[in-house]
Here is the input.
Amino acid sequence: MKKALITGVNGQDGSYLAEWLLGKGYEVHGVVRRTSSFSRKYIDPLHGANADSPSKLELHYGDMGDEKNLRKLVEKVRPDEVYNLASQSHVGISFDMPEYSTDVNALGTLRLLDAIHDYCPEARFYQASTSELFGCADESPQTEQTRFKPNSPYAVAKLYAYWMTVNYRQTYGMYACNGIMFNHESPRRGENFVTRKITQTVARIALGLDDHLSIGNMDACRDWGYAPDYVRAMWLMLQQEEADDFVVATGELHSVRELIEKAFAHISIQLEWDGEMAVERGIDSATGKTVVKVNSKYYRPIDIDSVLGDASKARKKLGWEPTVKFDQLVELMMKADMEVVATAR
Ligand code: NAP
Ligand code: GDD
Here is the structure.
């Protein structure tokens, strides 16, 4: 039985990846942090839950900031595949915590790569790289050849991790890959990322628990895909003859504003826009009530206006295709949040 080690197993991607690998018959080991409030609702059912199944998820305490701990874990588990998904993953917060974001996202990756090099150099390594590496890109759509111009502490730290992954591949012949993933979302998305914040708040408005959505830059455009599709691409990258780096994206571009309109349409509210920039608001065209307000506290010191990916290489070499695009993604997240909010009421 193959063994996989996932850092960040308790996150959106980690939980879907654990499910995917368990389904493939892997023995899965996940790294979790010690936290004072305990929330592992997506991975708890996988944690030794199915007594009939020979494969299971085993959890280990660890932290990307703790070199000894990572080395001991790698030495103990001796995985065949390592998926490094752990990170301080919020771009906006990385401006408030640049040093911490660098320690976890950049040096954390180096610590892990070095442990693998020393204890199980044959293991295959996946690094969660990101479209944020492109920053305000020189060309559109972006491919594996597009120049990197990171413009946040998060992205600069991820750039270091990207190149360290390439460096360990080139220097030591390790099978190490970067997935340059564009935004991917799901009902498990963290609540302070824009998609989930919108679907959750709109669901609360529908159920009378909130009266408006407070939002930042609505003109930012992203290439939003569905997280389970993206974890499949991660796995595919580690099943090839040679290690390589791949862009993973849907090739569709939409704005935050479109996302808001679509989410409100799901609860039968049609929006009209009034004002500009920090005083812009969205009005329910049937009632005249303001249901969207811009709040400049959600603006970033620098933002990326637009990122759009060209995943031709992943399509060709991995046979990967996205199964869910923007419209369906918003629908499924709205449906899920309507249920979650109604149940929690
Ligand atoms: P996520 O939901 O925020 O999950 C991140 C995970 O990392 C969490 O489980 C978190 O633990 C863990 N973590 C944070 N700091 C840690 C530390 N110091 N030591 C150990 N674990 C730590 O992120 P995601 O959306 O699943 O993304 C997975 C990875 O892909 C991340 O590296 C992200 O930067 C990258 N990425 C994501 C996207 C996207 O659109 N989702 C796109 C490109 C790249 P807790 O559960 O304890 O908080
Ligand atoms: N989070 C958030 N909250 N973003 C907002 C808000 C708000 O209230 N209002 C507007 N936005 C805008 C942000 O300024 C940004 O332009 C866009 O919505 C998307 O923000 P996020 O959902 O936080 O995602 P991100 O694109 O910055 O980063 C995500 O995707 C990256 C891949 O491109 C994260 O998952 C990163 O970890 C990932 O690397």
